[in-house]
Design goal:
The chain has nine helices and two strands; from the N terminus they run E-E-H-H-H-H-H-H-H-H-H. It is mainly α and 209 residues long.
Length: 209
């Protein structure tokens, strides 16, 4: 098995020639691939894309209500930005968390520049229930729709905190680091997001009684 790059002065040293060595790329750690990206290795970027594309796509689709093709554009922009900023990776936290941070940043810039405020959690859009569906199934579908609408109304910072912590199950410490905010700021955003979603459910329940 090909040995992984050895640390040198605290920095990971990428392999010198890995463009045509797909097997070697598969054996490299995320950290080694990102180190290779830092010196301009596009093959390493491709390996990172193959490894983490699905996770980044899911995150972006939860933060933005857009067509699949537009989400693909955001995902590709995320990886290109990760390639450009790879040298800034400090080694603290997982590379996946670093990519999530770049994705969240890319989404924020997209929202600000295009003024598209229609983000929602895509996974919370269930198919319409059949006319003969039981009452409890209808109730669950309605609750999902209420949550999706409530998430759509959350300010962007609150939505990002909720999606990363509660839906992607990233630790609060890592989320605070990737968003470059204090832990207390993150927890306040998460608290406010959870409170808003809970109030939306309770209001819907009262309406149904």
């Amino acid at each position: 098995m090909t040995a992984r790059p050895k640390p040198e002065g605290g920095q990971l040293v990428p392999l010198r020639r890995i463009d045509d060595r797909k097997a070697t790329l598969r054996e490299l750690s995320d950290e080694a691939l990102l180190a290779a990206c830092a010196v301009g290795d596009s093959a390493a970027l491709g390996a990172l894309f193959d490894r983490h594309h699905d996770a980044v796509y899911r995150l972006v689709s939860r933060l933005l209500r857009m067509e699949a093709a537009e989400i693909d554009d955001i995902v590709q922009t995320t990886f290109l930005e990760a390639w450009r900023s790879a040298a800034k990776y400090s080694g603290r936290g997982a590379v996946k968390s670093f990519l999530f941070g770049v994705a969240a940043n890319t989404v924020r810039h997209h929202v600000r520049s295009s003024k598209r405020r229609r983000e929602a959690f895509a996974d919370w859009q269930p198919p319409a229930p059949a006319p003969s569906a039981p009452d409890d199934a209808l109730s669950r579908a309605q609750q999902v729709q209420v949550l999706a609408a409530a998430l759509d109304r959350l300010p962007h910072d609150l939505r990002v905190a909720y999606v990363l912590c509660d839906l992607e199950d990233v630790s609060g410490v890592e989320v605070a680091r990737m968003l470059d905010v204090r832990a207390g700021t993150l927890w306040r955003r998460l608290h406010d997001a959870r409170k808003a979603l809970r109030e939306a459910i309770e209001a819907n329940d009262r309406k149904g009684t």
